[in-house]
Amino acid sequence: MNNNHFSQLLTIFHNRMAPEEGYLAGYGAIINTYDLQVPLPDMLSLISRKHKRYKTAEWMVFTPRYMPEDTLMGHLTFALKYEGIELAILKKLFEKLDINEISRAIADEPTGQYSRRIWFLYEWLLDRKLDLPDLAIGNYIDLVDDSIQYASRKEIETSKRHRIRNNLPGERGFCPMIRKTALLEQYIELGLSQQVKKVIGKIHPDVMARAAAFLLLKDSKASYAIEGERPPQNRAQRWGRAIGQAGQKSISKEELIRLQQIVIDNPRFTKMGFRKQEGFIGEHDRRYGTPVPDHISAKWEDLDMLMDGLIFTDQKLERDDSFDAVLAATLIAFGFVFIHPFVDGNGRIHRYLIHHVLLRKKYVSEGIIFPVSAIILERLNEYRSILEHFSRSRLDLIEWKPSKDNNVEVLNNTIDLYRYFDATKQAEFLYSCVRETIEQTIPEEVDYLEKYDLMKTYLDDHFQMPDKTVALLVRFLEQGEGHLSERARSKEFQALTADEVREIENKFQRIFEI
């Protein structure tokens, strides 16, 4: 276990520029020493030779007094203490270590809190028991430090052997993690769920019902638009009705297949159900037809285990009312789209799962659908960037060759790339979308409908116009920024006098504050 070459002095690591010269510590040092083929953590640790502790977007910089003992246990302890739990790195490391060597290292300090965590994680990740006696004394400690990462608070399993409370948010089959950042804490402290419930409670039920119907259809159309599709109205409405039922049924493999059947209404050219072939997102070389992947999906042989793990974690987080709903939606919805279990329909079902989790965890009132897809569509480049953030770091770790049908054939074991990942960036993005929906989109739609009703009441009282004509007139006035075009005056609204048109325009401008 002793190795005097963990802490390398450097200014760049895996193409990531350090903010200053310093020594790698924690997971970075372990990855470097053992040449672990894993995605690099979003945050790395550096021990500076200066006396200033600070953070950048990709580095935590520590002063010299934080330098860990230059051994594996020293750097593992540092990692757990300051960087949290990185399951993918730990599993790759444990698979490389000699079982007797790690047993001896833990036996040197079996009751230490970090030794116990390492011991538990070794046995939990590898499903392999070390030749060590159960602990008989010592207080129970949490596995996850919830000052660093978000953890479960309900249904926590205790391990008498290690005297550990396993508060991981998932299970061995699927357990992404989210780091506790200042931005996420700000979002959570806003209490957006209570805000939107309070706002909705003050709105006339009829207005809210109409707003909900509009937002539902808007979200459905946006979800197709994100995929580059323009569905006919009836197809968008059909998917909108499915979104409207989100949260009513628990997620299961059968339910996911049912949703795919709604998304893909013409399955003649699509193999339905869970994939029985590999998959990728990207292009084909124009000359040779070979794959040029941006994202390689989980191996189809791994889908049963991955989906069982995802569904178990979804149900666990649903029961844990202390685990933030938006964070839970991030883990499940993004976990699903990264796995990409279907040949087609993954993107829309991924965004459906956001609605599903928010409703199951009662983040929003029943019947209200956040138009998250509409916000994503407005921020499409940012959305693609956070998807690529996951995929890009994994492409070089996946060994593949083109198959005979110009698909990819994955040659190595990749399951852990999809079950253990850091979803912090995805959580920050999703929370920003939810905030925009609550603070802008819903209030703006309700405000519009209330103004529309005032305009309609005025037109009903003075001109007795049919609803269809009112809708047409308002649309023309919106297009003309409060003025009716000469074409509309001479055609659809030729029955109005010039004075009446001016009166209507003035009323519209006052109501809509133009």
UniProtKB/TrEMBL annotation:
Q: Per the UniProt entry, what is one GO biological process?
A: cell division
This one is known as Cell division protein Fic
Q: Where is the active site?
A: 340
Positions binding ATP in this chain are: 292-295, 344-351
Q: Which GO terms describe its molecular function?
A: ATP binding
Key words of the record: ATP-binding, Cell cycle, Cell division, Nucleotide-binding
Q: Which InterPro entries match?
A: Fido, Fido-like_dom_sf, Fido_containing
One short Pfam name that applies is Fic
Q: Which residues belong to any copy of the Fido domain?
A: 251-403
Look up the signal peptide feature and give its range. Answer: none
